[in-house]
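User: Please run a holo structure prediction.
Assistant: Happy to. Please share the sequence and the ligand.
User: Here you go; the ligand is magnesium ion.
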Amino acid sequence: MKIIFLGAPGAGKGTQAEIVSKSLNIPTISTGDMIREALKTGTEMGKKAKAYMEAGDLVPDQVVIGIVKERLALDDCKNGYILDGFPRTIPQAEALDAMGADIDCVIDIEVKDEVIINRMSGRRVCEKCGKTYHTENNPSKIEGVCDACTGALIQRKDDHIDTVKKRLETYHKETEPLKGYYEAQGKLIEVEGKDGKGSIEATHALIMEALNNR
Ligand code: AP5
Ligand code: MG
Ligand code: ZN
């Protein structure tokens, strides 16, 4: 199955993708994680992306489309995949269609902006493996230490309040129109509802139900 996870920054795309990936045994392709990795290793692409990312802006379409195209051509994508954070603009969605991706469904995780701001301030990520936690909603067993690899938990640079507000603005302007794009293709499924009250487990249950009822 080929699934897109759509939603505002901090809606829980990465958290849900990690769980669904395991249960369906398909890889998650997160453009955010790929760009952060490129930044860490200092590749040309990472250098180009740095300023955009840290300002809460989108990295130019051509850069992102290029890395996704390469990634989807790898063997492990043959039986399907989850796209987390891509596409994020209409031109990216059109490029994905032009690649012949033939997406099965688009799960839109709806969460209100106020809830997002709280989630982002409590988010911590493992410096080593990238696993995501939340200080209250999903804490690690030992504070500041990753359960999976014992790496140190840090705050993402773009999770500071001003950058989060900028990312939300970018989301509403550039990414939200994708809902209409995929609705017109009959692929859009909204989960969680506007109040964003769903816990990680409750949202996961809604996603699995939506996937099973397709
Ligand atoms: P990216 O890394 O994709 O960031 P994002 O889309 O802004 O989304 P996040 O990773 O912040 O949120 P998430 O939805 O994954 O939430 P999470 O599961 O962590 O992109 C970063 C940057 O890279 C962009 O700003 C851009 O510059 C660039 N970029 C990436 N892709 C691009 C593209 N295609 N085109 C152009 N530029 C691109 O959850 C958040 C927190 O909430 C966690 O702490 C979690 O534990 C907690 N939580 C999750 N679900 C729940 C719940 N149900 N209840 C309570 N807490 C919850
Ligand atoms: Mg994420
Ligand atoms: Zn780790």
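The first strand starts at residue 2 and ends at 7.
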